[in-house]
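Annotators were shown the component list below and the corresponding predicted structure, then asked to write short factual statements about the assembly.
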Amino acid sequence: MNVGTKELEDWINHLQGDSKNSFNRFKRLTEVITTEPEPQVGQTPKEVIWTKNKTKLYRYQPAMKKTNKVPILMIYALINKPYILDLYPGNSLIEHLTNQGHDVYLLDWGTAGYEDRNMKLDDYILDYIPRAVKKVLQTSGAKEISLLGYCMGGTMTAIFTALHPQLPIRNLILMTSPIDFEDAGHYSNWLDKRYFHLDKLVDTLGNVPFEMIDYGNKLLSPISNVYGPYISLADRVDNENFVLNWKLMQKWLNDGIPFPGESYRQWIGEFYQENKLIRDELYIRGHKVELSNIKANLLNISASRDNIVLPQQIEPLNDKVSSKNKTLHRVDTGHVSVVAGRKAINEIHPFIENWLREASV
Amino acid sequence: MTQKTPFEPFTMWKDMYEKTEKAWHDVIQDTLGKESFSEGLGQIQYSYLQYHELVNNLTEAYFKQANIPTRDEIANVASLVINLEGKIDNMDDQLYENSETMNKDINQLKRTVSNLDKKFDKVLEALATLEKKIQTGDAMVVTETANIQPEAKSATQSTQVKPATDTKK
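Structure shown to annotators:
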């Protein structure tokens, strides 16, 4: 076998320039897709300061000096894993913020099991987030806190903030977080009550598998989502930096988690189908959610090329809140590249850091 | 680019992708946005769920008959553990809440005991002074007694005994 491979390689080495080049690219492409190990993600040093069920609360770089008095609690979505916020050294929002002297915490929901199928958004918003906020304030010794939510985590963070106006939430940062579901693009059609069997889906499956959610996301733009990444890889397989970023992104995109059933029923039913949040019609464990109760400084980030959460789903929040300091920041990225990748590293991470520093003075 | 070599598979693949994507993008997006597509998607979803439900029911029935715990039963055990953990977490939280109040109470108690201690010291000091005075008083009495005449001595003794008798009364 080895002799055969060697003979083939010798034969290839005798080929003319372009053919040899093509073969080498093909060989490298095959290696990247099939045999190369996945890159290590989430490398910023961290410690667990609290756990509950599968949820973990991390504190990042605890040994590093914290120069900013207001700690930041990041709240992630119930879809995919939160290491996109700490993807790789040099490509990590968490690393950037901690290196700038911020005290950063992350609430990781973990991977829901079948026993978590009855967990509602109410449970996460009223039982988990408040406890995490308390733990952050206790650990940091701070009097105020900043909250940062990404995607659906931002929606949950906004609801939590609206329900707890008495808490010392100084800053609220939402990254591509849907608030208004009036026009959610293709999802509005696909999740239409008349055709989408929400109750049967939750009752039958318990938790909604990641593959089903991923299928929906890929269907938004099937050719570019399914073939696009491989075409890009084949085109730039000689660029090691590109290959590393490609592998990082593919790892994250395919490393999903199941969506807890009852939370999914609420998320699709009360948000996508009935659009209750923006209309002040949403109740969480009997408490009415009024976005006008949000008084914290607000940084709301929308991405113009995002086809998962459209800008028109994000931007109406700024008109609803009572915050005196509110910023709507539009960036030219997609849903994921708002938090990881070249543009995020060079523009968005520094922007968030500057905004936080100024808003915390 | 493609004219350079007779066969360049990557470039050919990329060109094909770009042309396909360009040609089909709008058509696909139109199709995806149609109500009939949503309806079709819903029908596929319903069929899949029907099949899944059937498999679930069959598996559950078989497991029950074979005396093997079902997924629901195992999940119930996990829920019990989670609930227990939740209770411990609540206790931990309550303990922390109480610890601050307790610390305040303990400090207050410490201050009170310290004040009491000081007062006791003063009382002891006063008692010691009093004792000293009494002892000094006794010594003076002894000295004075030694110096007086025997007739007067008995008179003094009777005078000293008198208050003691009065006190007893």
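Statements collected:
1. The domain at 46-359 of chain A is CATH 3.40.50.1820 (Rossmann fold).
2. The interface with chain B takes residues 18-19, 22, 25-26, 52-53, 113-117, 131, 134, 138, 186, 189-190, 192, 194-197, 200-201, 204-205, 219-224, 227-228, 231, 234-235 of chain A (CB under 8 Å).
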